Amino acid sequence: MAYTKVYIPYGGYYSSPFIRWNGALKAENPVALGAATARRWFVEKNIDPTVLDFLYFGQTITSPLTFFGHAYAAAVILDRVKDIPALGLNQVCTTSVTSLALGANDIELGNQEVVFCLSTDRASSTSILLAPNPKTGSVDIENIVLDNFDRDPSPGAGLKMFQTAEAVAKEVGISKEECDEIALLRYEQYQDAIANDRAFQKRYMFPIELKVSKKEVKLIDADEGITPTSAEALAKLKPTEPGGVVTFGSQTHPADGNCGIIVTTKEKAMELSADSNITVQILSYGVVRVAPGRMAAAPAPALQTAINKAGLNISDLRQIKTHNPFAVNDANTGRQLGIDQRIINNYGSSMIYGHPQGPTAGRAIIELIEALAVQGGGYGAFTGCAAGDIAASMVIKVS
Fold it and tell me: What is the pTM of this model?
């Protein structure tokens, strides 16, 4: 869909740091933590949360409180001073970009004036699903994260997640060396985000408050779990499967975190903006599904779809952010659409700082806005895959 009336207040968003799987947040309930972090952010930014009309709550990994997580989060954020309706959603890795699109639909159609999109997930300490199997008289057991990382959900695909990337690499002719080059570039781009005492990240990152004990509270204000790398180190890593291109160094890792973004009208965005001289407009959203077992191929046509809906050309984009669980995703997107890898994922990407699923796309879009602001504005886009060979994309203009 294309949009003409939808804006994000400049600074009207945050992402928490992303914390490596089974790290500092492994014991934290993601629903409670996401809601509490968002509430603290509204208070610190001096934004009255009662301005909100609706909440989209993204969570992909089941946990305690998930059943009514959307209603719980809305009540915490507004401290029950005002009760607003809410909706929970799950589109795995593209959950937060699709929640933004749903919010944009509300604004464009005049159904709501101010919508908040909150996404949170904890890949650590995953819930174990036990379901009765009437046919066997026993139970089916599923580790919601690990078991599903180990398979592609497309019927008949029969591939593990990383094998969907291998399938695309084989068809397109992407080599391990090309993946290693992209992985090193992404690591170097992340170094730009933490340069000068993390100056870029401090533009949008909001710390997590972690209660260590009754008397001690710890603030986590930076990503945890970044793996240093080099060309030599990447070259030495063996592919995950013989003859393949994907290694530990050219794929992401599960993580924990949350993010939130306000979507509203132009007038309200000006009122809520941290800098009224900067406008952030959502122009379009596109979602596609490709052939079974080809998840890494989906971001390219999703991006082209969103670009077409915005009435632009790929060459109009100054920055592109992706969810890149595998370097193959970026390699394929660059090849298919003729994009220089150097304008993709400046200042970081999920391949480097991790992948909590629900908030992953949201953080990327927030970084996209700030990267465009640093450049003095322009058009930018996010694109990223989701399980089941689906991908979603969004085009944004910063003026």
Answer: 0.97
